Amino acid sequence: MRRLTAHFIPAVLSLACAMPPAAAWAQQATSLPPNDAPSPAPNVHPDVRLPTLNTPVRVEDIKVSGNKQVSTGAIMAVVPFHVGSMVTQAQITQGLQDIMKLYQQQNVGGKFHQSLNLDGKRVKVEWAIEETGGPAHFDKPLVLESLGFDGNLHVSTSALKQAVHRQPGEQVTPATVLADEKAIQALYVKKNIGVTIVPESRAPHKDERVTLTYHLTEKAND
């Protein structure tokens, strides 16, 4: 959804991160396309251009809403910038991922939405959090039975398997899945390709074994 105000041309980037119990803990989206820079709204003059993904902009405001189980102070403590900082859109997105990692460390499920209101070299950041119930507790790690990828058209499956750290037979946790997602994203960044990563876990044997599939949506540069 795009909005237009008198002074700001906002671009809304959103992602969802859910932490339900048992093996389904890996069913979460924790990455944004690294090159998914916003574009002007349809009724904006064609000469108006928004900053590119890697152009530093000044943070004018940061708003966090919806958080109840994790304090705003704890959230802002993990964000690597503050009001007045010069940051790129990629760094802002990394800040959101740091918040998501904090929620995982606290074992609190949630969905996270990021909105960037851009005006020239200024940006207002809004993070809306939908906490999904109480903490998700895990008694012990699960054993990875199989690992798969789909949607990868520009990066080979063999390259993806080499990029991740956990292989079948090894133990996995929410933290290791997040680390592997970042490894996959880093591989795509090297190739200058945007990607959204959604891991999906299943427990077909109803025990401690889990299958893990990374669903990838690629976005190559034009």
Automatic annotation (TrEMBL):
It holds the Pfam family POTRA. Its main location: membrane. It is found in: Membrane. Coiled coil: none annotated. Residues 29-50 are annotated as: Disordered. Residues 1-26 form the signal peptide. Keywords: Membrane, Signal. Residues 142-219 form the POTRA domain. This is POTRA domain-containing protein. It comes from Acetobacter cerevisiae. The lineage of its organism: Bacteria, Pseudomonadati, Pseudomonadota, Alphaproteobacteria, Acetobacterales.
